[in-house]
Amino acid sequence: MKQNPAWISLALAAALIATLPASQAADEKAKPLAKLQAPAKAADDAAYEKNMAAERAASDARAKMSEAAKKDAEKQKAEQDVEQKRKDEAAAIEKAKQDTEAAKRRDEEKRQAWIEEQKRLRAERQRSCQIKPVMSDAEILNCKKVWR
Known about the structure:
Structural class: mainly alpha
Mean pLDDT: 82
Radius of gyration: 55 Å
Helix content: over 70%
Shape: rod-shaped
Distance between the termini: 145 Å
Order of helices and strands: HH
Low-confidence stretches: none
């Protein structure tokens, strides 16, 4: 036998309507029992409310601690940044100081090298002029240049 979906939904609706007065009667019978259970329910509600308040307070405390930790972390990072910047500046100053000292040292070495070169050239010129009892005009001129 083939079932029609319209008939099925009609049968379900009829069954619901038939059970409605019975469920209302059961609710009226349960009202006195609910009054007896009301004090326990009120105590449970109070405990629930107290528990919820404690949970909210704990949640707020965790949020405040989280915010405080975040602020501390930001403050510490800022302090580290300042300290790093100070170290970088000190390192830059030290490097500049070392560079100027190195430049002075190089200049002094160049000056000393020039002085040594001049001494060497003078000694070489003086060696080129040897006084002899008999000298040519070119040798005499060379000696005059050397001894000036």
